[in-house]
Specification:
By secondary structure, the chain is mainly α. The protein has eight helices and no strands.
Length: 167
Amino acid sequence: MPPCPVAELETIYPELAPQLERIVVRNLGVPAALLEEACQVAWGELALRRREVAPGSELGWLATTATRVALRHLRAARHQVSLDDEEQREHLVRIGAVAPGPERTAELRARLAAVQQLPMRQRRMVWMQGLGYGYDEIAARTGDSRRTVERQLLRAKVHLRVVHESM
């Protein structure tokens, strides 16, 4: 199967390239160099497989391909992380590419234990907020007023802050 004509890619590239980069950054939070590499590999693959990709589904295909490329690079990078490069290691821990060290693991477990100490109502609201729900959405799901949700979350945050400062 012959590769995709360059003219066809030139028409969709200006529109899809910025969207593709935003998707990969939002999904993985990768450094700029890795982002560029993953996106360019995806575009190259699209050029080779254009006939297999349905018109209108290019962005999804590109995003999936670029994400897979970036994840492969991240998996390889976790074996090459310098012990001296704390910033790089923290980034890889944050995105789940490497496991946190024992101190960070202990801290995370202590924070989870502190959340478990909250009353059930506050705990549920903290988890919902952690999952991205806003005050209005939490209120709708729990049957409480927005003000009640605000108060309960404020009490929970004060309790968690006190526990965290005592660690």
